[in-house]
């Protein structure tokens, strides 16, 4: 069955159809006929235990796992008498599981319906519409597009090339997800005109057909017809993405459907003889498909020579060198319609090329494939949308800036009226109501949202810090300062650069350095494993651990300097500035370490803080939490540190002095 | 005061509130007396203060003898709550010229960015004849009271407002001003959000504190070096060296970050660079040259000074663009005592932050100070006072005759002291000049002893500033006010000529 994108292919969006992920319904089909009886003895005797067992197995289907689906599908095939139970189990499973687990279950439904077909397709038919639509509403966009792909295969999913679940459910689903009467009007009249066809629908069907054709081309690389079809389809895709009229959309749609039906047949028919190497596979494929696929009950007895050899478990692993395996693998990626269309081997009456030439004639497309109306509408389909406007705006800005004829001369700058308003205001329509900062036209909503979030967070932080004192930070060291911009830009990205304060960047830098330091280690000399050793700086023992990779005992977070082993963090701290922000952050992290040197007792003579502003009221305003000198008193100097909110507490740095 | 023309109207709304309707291209200028504050609300329209746009409907607070101007490109209505000592509307501003300079700099950035990206020059860019376009590195020169800092600020603010993610570097080489640090320091900081104007203590934005702030221009992490005096002529050699140190580090930073290199830099300079009074001429030129070399300056802007312009044209005209730009008529003549007070504000702001009291009559509690929505919570700082013994902190003075006994001098030193020589300061000696002195706490020296050298402390950046608030000579202890926690034991600090008393 078709729609088993490999687990790693989850990132595929609707636009790019991964070759293994799409449109290979027969991938499952042929092996389905050769399913060996399940390895384990038959023990599902009564419906109750079968239901329990099937549900249990179904519960394992949490990811898109081919073996599990295969297994469940086989069980379903062997127990067609319990078809009702299988259907109930799958339905309740799909309805119960979280949305990210629904798709694999649908693949199972798809697999069983297509490969076993009878009686499952009929059993699923009454409930598949509701189930599909309910699920479709709940899942995210990428899952939706995968479901749409699956839906398209259902159009020709039955053994005789008709709708897998019948015309009515198919139409009902398509109408719901693509809207209106835009879908196939009826299986009998595939050319029915439709009042509104969404470009999205056409695109997804187009992709489907294109994929079919490309796969056909892969199999028969010398097939001129397929090559031509692929080229035309690709042009059509560009055209549709750029936007075409309703009438053309539905025209394209109809042609596509015809092609989808005819493609698999036309390809083999029109191919020149494949190269000898490909011959066996082709033959095998022909052989296996020669008779129309019989209904499921007979299928277990159906002996396709090519598929007998591999056991089900190996059939799905990547074929090794044996040509026979390769053949089965290749044929298994044959498009779904293949088996369906072979019997009705009549040549297609329509060709996509006709459509294309018709469009060229109508002036919609230029013969070079550039749509004349390109860019007018329907840009929305482009997946790269979030990136482009920003870059575009920046590009436009740069162009506009350079357009002004202005030279840096006294005469030039004083004589002209400035066009700065255009750049300062007109081009930046979005403004933060709180701080007045403006954002470019093209800036995604996200930039602005991030900015507002920043305001919110800062207000929240400030609110939490009421009654706690803040203090001026020490300036950063040269090293931190010269590398600050680097972190700021490369680490966090410039898109939301505004909200990243330099201190955040410094913190990120500090965290990174901390991690690097902690990763350092010193190999324990042989025989010293049991010897306790402590860091000369913090006097804490160094922890030894066994490195699996190197098979050696090492001291973690350690450096060796002048024959002494230090904690890497202590050593770095001692050598670097004792008061940079970065170090303070580091201290905060490792704050649990005890210090050997008692902080100096500090005392302050009582001395009132005198406000330096002559005319200003000397009493702090009621809302001002702290407006006095913070005294360093005899009590535990660390106690205060807790009270500093997000401020990195400054520890005693006397450590190494 | 209003000069009689009809382009503005002043309407009294109530006792405390007046409404000004500003026509496009005019600006409302105001000056505050010590101790008063003023709130300005943009009722509608668009307005900006030194390049930082005001948000419509928000109330902005100003204080500490702030002198500023609300400019509008397209016209606006503002409400002023409180009583400035001076206020008027002017329609003669150099904003168009400044904006044109900005556009020209912007073109340089765009071209430089294109080179970085490796894209071909566009066909519609006729002026692009330079094979290797460089981002703008601008030196702003001008005499006293010409608005150099304001020009630098406007140009930086315009750059960050374009929405192109520029982060230009702003450098303050005027030790009398202090910038983000305190007076006596020169510093550099990358700017990524518009610098707000609210008090002269934070003309160039704020250095970072542990409070959560809304604008990155209120949480800057500058790289600062300590010169220690207000006047550049006092130790031009040291100044020269510090400028070059800054330049080296800016260059290194840009090596790591090509994208921000494209944003360029803008250097604000002390007025002494422009003074042409005989004896100092040599120093002055040396310092300008130090800036040009250190920051690889390619644009010199001379604010309203013909003679200096010609001078610069002659010296640098063949190597870079030298442009005279008009001086704003709104610049206020600042006397020495005002500058003195501003330094005090700056130090106070460094230690305690600053909270402005809203003027009487301000009905809302929602106001912005320096762009911060909750100044009470974010601009209020608590420094730490602690007692250290004399031996804990090593103090130096750079190149000055001190009262230190010969034994306290570095080995081999004689009483004849060079300008650049670090001299130990002994707090125990009477007349050490430490009481109330501002100290610059230095970053630790190179951990590798072999890398150290005699004058290393000249090249160490500042991590913070301390003030000696009490000296207990009999017990060999002193009380130090520091901005935040952290042991001072074993640290090195440099004494300058600044003093501060709370």
UniProtKB/TrEMBL annotation, chain A:
Pfam families (alphabetical): CID (PF04818), Pcf11_C (PF21936)
UniProt feature, compositional bias: Basic and acidic residues: 379-389, 631-645
Tree of life domain: Eukaryota
Biased composition (Pro residues): 290-307
Domain spans labelled CID: 46-181
Alphabetized InterPro entries for the sequence: CID_dom (IPR006569), ENTH_VHS (IPR008942), PCF11-like (IPR045154), Pcf11_C (IPR054127), Pcf11_CID (IPR047415)
Positions of the UniProt region annotated as Disordered: 264-308, 370-389, 585-657
CDD domains: CID_Pcf11
Composition bias type Low complexity, residue spans: 279-289
Protein name per Swiss-Prot or TrEMBL: CID domain-containing protein
Species per Swiss-Prot/TrEMBL record: Rhodofomes roseus
TrEMBL record, chain B:
Recorded superkingdom: Eukaryota
Residue sites binding ATP per the record: 27, 67, 145-150
UniProt KW ATP-binding keyword: yes
Compartments in which it is found: Nucleus
Domain Clp1 N-terminal: 22-112
Sorted UniProt keywords: ATP-binding, mRNA processing, Nucleotide-binding, Nucleus
Residue stretches making up the Clp1 P-loop domain: 142-353
Positions of the UniProt region annotated as Disordered: 115-138
Domain Clp1 C-terminal: 381-502
Subunit structure: Component of a pre-mRNA cleavage factor complex. Interacts directly with PCF11.
Family (UniProt): Belongs to the Clp1 family. Clp1 subfamily.
Its job: Required for endonucleolytic cleavage during polyadenylation-dependent pre-mRNA 3'-end formation.
The protein's name: Polynucleotide 5'-hydroxyl-kinase GRC3
Gene: CLP1
């Amino acid at each position: 069955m078709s729609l088993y994108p490999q687990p790693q292919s989850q990132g595929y969006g609707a636009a790019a159809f991964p070759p293994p992920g799409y449109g290979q319904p027969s991938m499952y089909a042929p092996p389905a006929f050769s399913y060996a009886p399940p390895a384990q003895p038959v023990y599902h005797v009564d419906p109750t235990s079968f239901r329990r067992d099937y549900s249990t197995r179904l519960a394992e289907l949490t990811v898109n796992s081919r073996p599990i689906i295969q297994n469940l599908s086989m069980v379903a095939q062997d127990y067609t008498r319990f078809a009702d139970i299988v259907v109930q189990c799958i339905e309740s499973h799909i309805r119960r599981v979280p949305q990210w687990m629904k798709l694999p279950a649908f693949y199972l439904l798809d697999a069983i319906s297509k490969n076993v077909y009878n009686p499952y397709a009929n059993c699923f038919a009454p409930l598949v519409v509701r189930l599909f639509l309910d699920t479709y509403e709940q899942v995210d966009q990428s899952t939706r597009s995968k479901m749409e792909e699956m839906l398209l295969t259902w159009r020709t999913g039955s053994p005789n090339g008709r709708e897998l679940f019948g015309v009515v459910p198919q139409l009902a689903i398509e109408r719901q997800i693509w809207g209106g009467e835009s879908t196939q009007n009826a299986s009998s009249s595939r050319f029915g005109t439709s009042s509104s066809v969404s470009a999205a629908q056409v695109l997804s069907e187009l992709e489907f057909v294109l994929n079919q054709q490309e796969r056909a081309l892969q199999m028969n690389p010398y097939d001129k017809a397929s090559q031509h079809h692929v080229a035309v389809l690709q042009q059509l895709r560009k055209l549709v993405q750029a936007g075409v009229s309703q009438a053309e959309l539905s025209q394209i749609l109809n042609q596509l459907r015809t092609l989808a039906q005819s493609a698999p047949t036309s390809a083999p028919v029109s191919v020149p003889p494949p190269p000898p190497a490909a011959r066996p596979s082709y033959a095998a494929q022909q052989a296996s498909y020669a008779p129309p696929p019989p209904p499921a009950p007979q299928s277990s007895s159906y002996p396709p020579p090519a598929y007998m050899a591999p056991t089900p478990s190996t059939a799905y692993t990547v074929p090794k060198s044996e040509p026979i395996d390769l053949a089965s693998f290749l044929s298994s990626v044959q498009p779904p319609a293949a088996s369906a269309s072979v019997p009705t081997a009549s040549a297609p009456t329509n060709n996509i090329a006709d459509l294309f030439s018709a469009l060229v004639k109508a002036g919609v497309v230029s013969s070079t494939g550039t749509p004349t109306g390109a860019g007018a509408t329907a840009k929305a389909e482009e997946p790269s949308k979030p990136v482009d406007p920003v870059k575009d705006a920046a590009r436009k800005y740069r162009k506009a800036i350079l357009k002004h004829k202005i030279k840096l001369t006294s005469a030039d700058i004083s004589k002209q009226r400035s066009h700065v308003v255009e750049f300062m205001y007109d081009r930046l329509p979005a403004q933060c109501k709180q701080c007045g900062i403006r954002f470019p036209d093209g800036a995604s909503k996200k930039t602005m949202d991030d900015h507002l979030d920043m305001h919110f967070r800062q207000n929240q932080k400030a609110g939490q810090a009421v009654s706690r004192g803040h203090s001026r930070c020490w300036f950063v060291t040269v090293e931190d300062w010269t590398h600050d911009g680097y972190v700021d830009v490369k680490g966090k990205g410039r898109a939301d650069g505004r909200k990243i304060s330099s201190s955040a960047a410094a913190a990120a830098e500090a965290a990174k350095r901390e991690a690097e330091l902690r990763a350092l280690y010193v190999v324990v000399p042989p025989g010293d494993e049991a010897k306790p050793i402590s860091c000369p700086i913090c006097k804490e023992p160094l922890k030894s651990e066994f490195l699996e990779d190197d098979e050696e005992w090492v001291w973690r977070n350690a450096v060796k300097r002048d024959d002494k082993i230090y904690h890497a963090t202590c050593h770095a701290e001692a050598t670097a500035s004792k008061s940079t922000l970065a170090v303070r952050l580091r201290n905060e992290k490792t704050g649990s370490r005890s210090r050997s040197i008692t902080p100096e007792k500090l005392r302050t003579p009582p001395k009132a803080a005198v406000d330096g502003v002559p005319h200003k009221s000397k009493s702090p305003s009621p809302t001002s939490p702290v407006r006095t000198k913070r005294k360093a008193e005899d009590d535990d100097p660390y106690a205060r540190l807790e009270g500093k909110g997000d401020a990195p507490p400054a520890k005693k740095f006397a450590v190494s002095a | 005061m209003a000069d009689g023309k009809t382009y503005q109207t002043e309407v009294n709304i109530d006792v405390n509130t007046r409404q000004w309707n500003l026509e496009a291209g005019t600006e409302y200028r105001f000056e505050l007396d010590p101790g008063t504050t003023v709130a300005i609300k943009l009722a509608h329209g668009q307005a900006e203060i030194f390049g930082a746009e005001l948000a419509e409907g928000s109330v902005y607070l100003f204080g500490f003898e702030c002198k500023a101007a609300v400019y509008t490109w397209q016209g606006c209505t503002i409400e002023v709550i409180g009583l400035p000592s001076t206020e008027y509307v002017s329609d003669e501003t150099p904003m168009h010229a400044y904006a044109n300079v900005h556009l020209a700099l912007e073109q340089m950035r765009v071209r430089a960015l294109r080179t970085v990206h490796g894209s071909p020059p566009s066909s519609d860019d006729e002026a692009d004849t330079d094979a290797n376009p460089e981002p703008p590195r601008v030196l702003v020169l001008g005499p006293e009271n010409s608005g150099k800092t304001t020009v630098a600020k406007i140009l930086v603010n315009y750059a960050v407002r374009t929405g192109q993610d520029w982060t230009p570097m702003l450098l303050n080489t005027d030790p009398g001003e202090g910038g983000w640090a305190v007076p006596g320091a020169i510093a550099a900081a990358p700017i990524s959000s518009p610098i707000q104007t609210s008090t002269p203590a934070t003309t160039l934005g704020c250095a970072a504190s542990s409070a959560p702030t809304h604008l990155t221009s209120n949480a800057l992490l500058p790289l600062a070096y300590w010169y220690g005096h207000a006047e550049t002529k006092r130790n031009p050699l040291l100044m020269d060296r510090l400028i070059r140190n800054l330049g080296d580090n800016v260059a290194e930073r840009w090596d790591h970050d090509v994208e921000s290199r494209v944003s360029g830099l803008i250097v604000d300079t002390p007025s002494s660079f422009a003074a042409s009074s005989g004896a100092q001429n040599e120093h002055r030129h040396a310092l300008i040259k130090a800036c040009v070399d250190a920051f690889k300056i390619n644009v010199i802007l001379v604010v309203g000074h013909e003679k200096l312009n010609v001078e610069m044209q002659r010296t640098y005209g063949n190597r870079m663009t030298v442009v005279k730009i008009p001086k704003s008529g709104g610049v206020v003549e600042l006397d020495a005592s005002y500058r003195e007070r501003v330094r005090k504000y700056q130090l106070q702001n460094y230690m305690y932050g600053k909270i402005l009291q809203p003027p009487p009559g301000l009905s809302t509690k929602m106001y912005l100070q320096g762009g911060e929505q909750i100044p009470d919570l974010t601009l209020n700082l608590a420094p730490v006072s602690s007692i250290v013994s004399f031996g804990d902190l090593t103090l130096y003075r750079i190149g000055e005759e001190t009262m230190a006994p010969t034994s306290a001098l570095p080995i081999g030193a004689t009483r004849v002291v060079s300008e650049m020589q670090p001299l130990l300061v002994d707090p125990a000696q009477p007349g050490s000049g430490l009481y109330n002195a501002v100290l610059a706490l230095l970053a630790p020296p190179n951990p590798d002893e072999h890398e150290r050298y005699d004058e290393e402390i000249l090249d160490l950046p500042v991590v913070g500033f301390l003030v000696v608030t009490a000296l207990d000579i009999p017990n060999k202890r002193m009380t130090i006010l520091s901005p935040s926690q952290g042991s001072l034991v074993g640290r090195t600090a440099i004494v300058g000529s600044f003093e501060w008393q709370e």
